[in-house]
């Protein structure tokens, strides 16, 4: 019988309770908590993950294969691609790391656990949440990057070395970034980027060794890289980090969508100069009217948007993944 102390965090954290975590670490400070792996099995769904072979039987979706083996295969063009689950093991043997995105589609108990953790963390209802399982062999890992999501990581097998470093370049990043792309920065990130890039080894950072039974909370934006010298399996619970910006943009769109002129086709490039001028004048008056359109937006209006879908990209990914798994049912 499973012994539970209360909520998921109370069950998983060793010698710490959920209040301490929520007050001192969430949402900005990483936490590495070691203990017996047994405590993870109090989280419904985790006991279904016993081995890589077992996961490959359950997971009826393409598997992402990642790492040097893929770079070699594609002549340096790609570092990851999707393969059918039956081919995943041969890529694993060649040294690729395997990423099982949306594992919770195939283990519904996990979805339930993630949803409980989401409300425990006080995240808006419309926040993206999913489980991702990683399996890797010797030396396979991820180079330095940061994510726009936060992760709760359960190390289920093997030893993995993590390097973490505080992100002095961006506060509250809204997108993922790979250090290997430096000095190139995508435009939105460039607009709020500060200072020099860290070195690729994150040598000013902290080194952590996760082994079976290690739990890691990785906040959004924290620089990190991983490597392993043995076979590892880790389960991640990943949560989007909706910003006020997301809520206000939904509200603004919802207001403008009611106006016929804002739904008009962008039809300007084929017009002659005279017609083009007319369209520009009309657009100018629409812009000038924005303060009226947005008048009276209240805090309540914005907070009501917490229930909206706050990550359309991931929701689409989920639907695609679900559709891909349906075919195996026929
Ligand atoms: Fe990451």
From TrEMBL:
Q: Which domain of life is it from?
A: Bacteria
**Which species expresses this protein natively?**
Bacillus xiamenensis
Q: Which cofactor does it need?
A: Fe(2+)
InterPro entries (UniProt xref): JmjC_dom, NO66-like
Asked if the Swiss-Prot or TrEMBL record annotates the protein with the keyword Iron, the reply is: yes
Q: Which segments constitute the JmjC domain?
A: 96-256
Entry's transmembrane regions: none
* Pfam families in alphabetical order: JmjC_2
- PROSITE patterns, sorted: JMJC
Q: What is this protein called?
A: Cupin-like domain-containing protein
Could you tell me which Gene3D superfamilies the record lists for this protein? 6.10.280.40, Cupin (2.60.120.650)
Ranked from the top, the taxonomy reads: Bacteria, Bacillati, Bacillota, Bacilli, Bacillales
Where would one find the signal peptide in this protein?
Answer: none
Q: Which UniProt keyword terms apply here?
A: Iron, Metal-binding
Keyword Nucleotide-binding attributed: no
């Amino acid at each position: 019988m499973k012994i539970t102390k209360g909520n998921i965090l109370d069950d998983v954290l060793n010698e710490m309770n959920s209040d301490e975590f929520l007050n001192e670490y969430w949402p900005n400070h990483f936490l590495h908590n070691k203990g017996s792996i047994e405590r993870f099995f109090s989280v419904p769904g985790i006991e279904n993950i016993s081995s890589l072979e077992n996961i490959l039987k359950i997971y009826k979706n393409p598997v992402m294969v990642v790492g040097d083996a893929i770079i070699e295969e594609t002549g340096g063009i790609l570092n990851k691609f999707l393969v059918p689950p039956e081919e995943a093991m041969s890529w694993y043997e060649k040294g690729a790391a395997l990423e099982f995105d949306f594992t919770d589609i195939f283990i519904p108990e996990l979805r339930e656990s993630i949803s409980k953790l989401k409300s425990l963390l006080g995240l808006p209802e419309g926040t993206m949440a999913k489980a991702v399982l990683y399996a890797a062999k010797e030396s396979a890992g991820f180079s330095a990057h940061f994510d726009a999501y936060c992760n709760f990581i359960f190390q289920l097998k093997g030893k993995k070395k993590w390097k973490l470093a505080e992100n002095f370049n961006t506060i509250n990043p809204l997108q993922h970034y790979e250090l290997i792309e430096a000095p190139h920065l995508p435009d939105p990130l460039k607009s709020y980027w500060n200072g020099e890039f860290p070195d690729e080894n994150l040598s000013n950072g902290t080194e952590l060794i996760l082994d079976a039974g290690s739990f890691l909370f990785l906040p959004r934006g924290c620089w990190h890289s991983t490597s392993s010298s043995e076979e590892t399996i880790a389960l991640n619970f990943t949560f989007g980090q909706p910003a006020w910006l997301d809520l206000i943009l939904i509200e603004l769109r919802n207001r403008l969508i009611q106006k016929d002129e804002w739904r008009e086709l962008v039809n300007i490039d084929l017009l002659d100069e005279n017609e083009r001028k007319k369209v520009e004048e009309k657009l100018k008056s629409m812009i000038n009217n924005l303060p009226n359109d947005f008048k009276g937006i209240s805090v309540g209006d914005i907070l009501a948007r917490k229930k909206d879908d706050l990550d359309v990209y991931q929701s689409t990914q989920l639907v695609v993944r679900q559709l891909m798994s349906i075919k195996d049912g026929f």
